[in-house]
Amino acid sequence: MTRLAPGCERFCLRGPLREGPFLSNWFYLAPGTWTKYNPKAMRNNRLVSLVKGEDRSSNISRALELIKRDLGAINDKKRILIKPNLLSSDDPRGNTNVETVRSIIEFLARNYDNFAEKEIVVFEGSAGAFYGGTTTREVFEKFGYADLEKEFKNVRLECIEDFSECVPVQIYTLGGVATIGIVRHVVEDFDYRISVNLPKTHNYAVATLGIKNMVGVVKQCDKSMIHGLKAASSNGNGSRTIFDYVPTWAISLLRRHAMGFVDLVIGYIPSYRRGIKLIHKNIVTMVKEVWPDLVVLDGLYGMEGKGPGEGNLVRMNLAIASTDPVKADALGARVMGINPEDIGYLYYLHEEGLGDMSLEGLVGVGLEQAAMHFKMHPTYNVQIQWR
After folding, report:
1. Which range marks the domain in which residue 51 is found?
2. Domain total of the chain
């Protein structure tokens, strides 16, 4: 008899679980969600909070309070990184609101007596700044982040443009193996990392939440390779694809002015269809270097449709927090109406035993009180063909 972890509720698609080469073993994650039995991919006892409310700061504070049992490690940490999502250099809708980050810092100040001894760094590499010809520092200024340095003596803003040393990581593109750089400072100089985002649909990876947000610490000119669409021509090997001839900034500009047409065309390009099979594995590879210790999802608003930057805002009135990033993101997906197993990087991380996609440890309100049905990205039906 195959044994599962104590307390792991089992529902079998083909009768009782039995050893044997001809029977598949399955266990239950949530209504409508089943996964094959994998000894590595077991449940854990980490809490994941889900709170509802109309005030952003209160939501964040209560979400963190509910998982305080799991936050004890923060007490001994000296250098804490907070990674917001400032995708756009001019449109605040898909960006992490500065009030969200402020609320996290205030929670730390209230709950840890040695807060003043900690170094808090808010770090970002804004893709919108890179493609728009501006800087992350200017984005910080534009959206009110500079005030954090004035309000808290131990808080500092840092921008990806100020760091040149990178840790090389190999990923896969349509042209073969390529090397990207992850900012060495983020990899080596922090003993606690917090990823902060809002739930958003995505144009390549189905959804972006806390885990994918860490792609922001990849060197600016390497970010597009995470999608698998750039050939490995820079390494002298591999063949070129159409995406090597069309600059990423040009695609971004076209999306702003002819969004529907560009998404329709890209969705039918064979390179795009092949690339979606690579992005999830690439995210898994790179995020292991900068694994977040805590994910906070500010769901006062989420973005549906043509996310991650040009979709429509949806009022959700919720917040999610967990020290298991997979558990936080899986819950975020569920409240959007997405099966977390349809998001490749969550599936792979769960299968590797790096997190738990179940609802085990849910505190706060029940999923049924928060679940919504987001409008998916126009290329969603192509995106879920990553398997």
Report:
1. 47-383
2. 1
Q: Is residue 206 part of a domain?
A: yes
Whether 220 is in a domain gets the answer yes
Q: Along the 387 residues of the chain, how does pLDDT read in single tens digits?
A: 233 333 333 322 323 333 333 333 444 444 444 444 455 556 899 999 999 999 999 999 999 999 999 999 999 999 999 999 999 999 999 999 999 999 999 999 999 999 999 999 999 999 999 989 999 999 999 999 999 999 999 999 999 999 999 999 999 998 889 999 999 999 999 999 999 999 999 999 999 999 999 999 999 999 989 988 765 444 444 555 555 556 555 555 555 545 555 555 566 677 778 889 999 999 999 999 999 999 999 999 999 999 999 999 999 999 999 999 999 999 999 999 999 999 999 999 999 999 999 999 999 999 999 999 999 999 999 999 999
Print the SS3 string covering the chain. CCCCCCCCCCCCECECCCCCCCCCCEEEEECCEEEECCCCCCCCCCCEEEEECCCHHHHHHHHHHHCHHHCHHHHHCCEEEEECCCCCCCCHHHCCCHHHHHHHHHHHHHHCCCHHHCEEEEEECCHHHHHHCCCHHHHHHHCCCHHHHHHCCCEEEEEHHHCCCEEEEEEEECCEEEEEEEEHHHHHCCCEEEEEECCEECCCCCEECCCHHHHHHECHHHHHHHHCCCCHHHHCCCCCCHHHHCCHHHHHHHHHHHHHHHHHHHHCCHHHHHHHHHHHHHHHHHHHHHCCCEEEEEEEEEEECCCCCCCEEEEEEEEEEECCHHHHHHHHHHHHCCCHHHCHHHHHHHHCCCCCCCCCCEEECCHHHCCCCCCCCCCHHHHCCCC
User: 123: which 2 tokens?
Assistant: 């770090």
- In whole angstroms, what is the distance from residue 195 CA to residue 192 CA? 10
State the pTM of this model: 0.86
What's the CATH number where 325 sits? 3.40.50.11440
318 in any annotated domain: yes
Answer whether residue 126 is part of any domain: yes
